[in-house]
Sequence to fold (163 residues):
Amino acid sequence: MKRLLIVWHSRTGAARDMAEAAARGAAGEPGVETRLLAVDEAGPENLLEADGYLFVGPENLAALSGEMKAFLDRCYYPVLERLNGRPYAHMVAAGSDGTGAARQLARIATGWRLKPIAEPLIVITHAQTPEAILAAKSLDGAALAACEELGAALAAGLAMGVF
Ligand SMILES: Cc1cc2nc3c(=O)[nH]c(=O)nc-3n(C[C@H](O)[C@H](O)[C@H](O)COP(=O)(O)O)c2cc1C
Fold:
């Protein structure tokens, strides 16, 4: 049995829905046990016991959210050199961009010697005004389907040992 860890942070619900959709997709793979953890519940031990990772969170101020960054800061040295070669993917909820968060995570994952199995999946929520940015988000079916697909692909690859 392989283990997939999905670590998520969300301020207004978009990234949480994305993480849950990915977990639904992964659940279709019988050879994989999926763990869905909020960033404040996850620690180095969860990273060490998993075979692959999906990181999910919003872009905030052209970067990873502070909460996601704090999780990575907390875990970086305790697991350094112990995750080498494991596969991962990244999903970003963004008002209009998302590339800053994607670049930042890619650099951190390179330090951990993780292997990206897909391009970052960025879902644009079109929140631009303060009111829209602070409002609870609900994503359309196409966005959620893409997240489900990525979760399923990651789980299938883990089960088959192709990464
Ligand atoms: C403090 C803050 C900063 C943000 N900065 C960006 C940004 O740099 N680029 C962007 O595309 N969206 C930005 N957004 C919009 C969020 O990424 C967008 O609303 C996203 O859907 C939030 O995901 P969540 O619902 O999971 O929290 C920002 C939102 C907040 C609250």
Summary: The pocket of flavin mononucleotide is lined by residues 10-15, 58-62, 93-98, 125, 127, 133, 137 (CB under 6 Å). The chain has a mean pLDDT of 97.
